[in-house]
Amino acid sequence: MSAPLLQVQDLHAFYGKSHILHGVTFDIAAGEIVSMLGRNGVGRSTTIKAIMGDVPPRGSIRFRDREIGGMKPHQIARLGLGYVPENRDIFPSLTVRQNLYLGQKSTKKTGRWSMADMFKVFPRLEERADTRAGVLSGGEQQMLTMCRTLMGDPDLIMIDEPTEGLAPMMVELVGKLLSEIAGRGISILLVEQKLTIALKISHRLYVMGHGEIVFSGTPGDLAANAGVRKEWLEV
Amino acid sequence: MLEIITFSTLNGVLYGMVLFMLASGLTLIFSMMGVLNFAHASFYMLGAYFGFEISRRIGFWPALIVAPILVGIVGALVERFGLRRVHKFGHVPELLFTFGLAFVIEEVVQMIWGKLPVDYRVPPSLDFTAFRLFDTTYPAYKMFMLAIAIGMFVALLVVLNKTRVGLIIQASLTHPNTVAMLGHDVPTIFMAVFGAGSALAGLAGVIAGPAFVTQPAMAALLGPILFVVIVVGGLGSLGGAFAASLLIGLVQTFAVAINGSLADIFGASAADWFGDLGTVTVAQIAPIIPYFLLVLVLIIKPTGLFGTRET
Ligand SMILES: Nc1ncnc2c1ncn2[C@@H]1O[C@H](COP(=O)(O)OP(=O)(O)OP(=O)(O)O)[C@@H](O)[C@H]1O
Ligand SMILES: [Mg+2]
């Protein structure tokens, strides 16, 4: 078996003196959809930020069998890691089209995704293409951040709580885009709190608690394990 | 009277546009660093001296191109090897660094070119009268300065709003982390912005040198006015910097030109009211008018005319 696309081993991270991640270990294979579940504040976002180099990581992070710990965020992004932050960090004063345009890493190479693809999945974005992104609804902004990252043609996309605070119809749209992404052979790391989408689309799931992985298995394993759900997921 | 108004308006707009050549770069640099660059006017002075030196050796036109580029390189090096290192230690050290840099540049300029003003003159090819109105003539060189300043303004608007690099810069000013995560090299972008801002200040120096006085104190004289412009316009707002540049340029020029006393303006009875103050001429108080405006704006609208930033 070849090495996984992303392999994280014994990852530790700190904010100042507070020790947030206590040795997180997990991996994602090429083309795999993996979910990272857990309650608020357990360190899921910190895990992704450490992988992206936004928080200084300690431990080993290998992407395509290459150590990326210590690299700068833009270098990591250029290796093919895409990140969709949890706060819907669009550029509010730029238009929807300009936001998508800045997702592209260069104007020369065209990736798997074109702006037309984005507009096909979300016709709403095309209608609002020349509107300032700051006035979009929360759901539309979420779509935009995901599409913007896709424009950079990542091989693995890490998406932080894409459905948080969205109406059911929007949640369904997000699910549709995730399937579209997976359909093109791109790996997904989905960070979620709710099980709705995660159980439906994931090949494997991890559950985090207090800065460590406390469960790893298939959706079937998790469905069968009421103990883990009760202790680490249900509120 | 019409004559005074026409020429003062021209001169005021010109002065304002030169101010904006500095204020625009300073505003962009402020947005990205979060602190004011006290050395910004020093890059303007470097532009004037480089312009003088290059003009003297190979002519004004090459100087117009080469001097701003050299100043831009100095600026980029200062960012890369100075500010970026100091940045880790917080805003106060950064501020002190730029403050110290201003003194260093002034000292170096004095060491090389001396304390007295240098003889940086309008090039002969531009040394003629552009037009005559009533009994006053207007020099072609000032029209040239105006054209350069307006050209720079248009170029800045186009680059920032119509080019990919400009969009990346705009996004980096407010969301540097997000831009980096999309694969753009933000530190290099910042270095380029700092360099370009310095180059613009340098260009202003090259063209303003012959019109004003090229001397080691020119940075220290212009610096405070520049801060007034930035604060009155609203820290970090380019539109605000533009409006404030023109406002300060016009107000100061008119104040000098009117040159009447308060008593003349408000009538003889004002003399009783103001006492000795009534006989002070507007031209005499012209230098403090910008600071008066600054205080006024800060009282009425602390964020500046166009500012949104909390300070
Ligand atoms: N910038 C920061 N400075 C200090 N502490 C932080 C910072 N960001 C997060 N933390 C702390 O680190 C812990 C983990 O945060 P993280 O954002 O990774 O949680 P999470 O699992 O993504 O949960 P959620 O997104 O629901 O808040 C929390 O206790 C949080 O308070
Ligand atoms: Mg989170």
Which keywords apply here?
heterodimer; A: alpha/beta; six-stranded mixed β-sheet; four-stranded antiparallel β-sheet; B: mainly alpha; two-stranded antiparallel ribbon; 14 helices; binds magnesium ion
The strand order across the widest sheet of chain B is: 1-2
Please name the CATH topology of chain A.
Answer: Rossmann fold
Structure annotation, total helices of chain A: 10
| Number of DSSP strand runs of chain A | 10
List low-pLDDT spans of chain A.
none
Outline the structure in words:
The complex is a heterodimer of chains A (about 240) and B (about 300). Chain A is an alpha/beta fold and about 240 residues long. Chain A has helices at about 45-50, 75-80, 95-105, 115-120, 125, 140-150, 170-185, 195-200, 220-225, 225-235; strands spanning about 5-15, 20-30, 35, 55-65, 65, 80-85, 155-160, 185-190, 205-210, 210-215. Chain A has one domain (about 5-235): P-loop containing nucleotide triphosphate hydrolases (Rossmann fold), CATH 3.40.50. In chain A, helix 3 packs parallel to helix 6 (about 140-150). Chain A starts with 5 loop residues before the first strand and ends with a helix. In chain B, helix 1 runs antiparallel to helix 10 (about 240-260). In chain B, strands 1-2 form a two-stranded antiparallel ribbon. Chain B has helices spanning about 1-35, 40-60, 60-85, 90-115, 140-160, 165-175, 175-180, 185-210, 220-235, 240-260, 260-265, 270-275, 280-285, 290-300; strands spanning about 130-135, 135-140. Helix content of chain B is about 75%, strand content about 5%. Chain B has a domain at about 1-220. Chain B is an all-alpha fold and about 300 residues long. The interface of A and B includes residues 83 and 94 of A. The site of magnesium ion has 5 residues of chain A, from helix 1. Magnesium ion binds next to helix 1 of chain A.
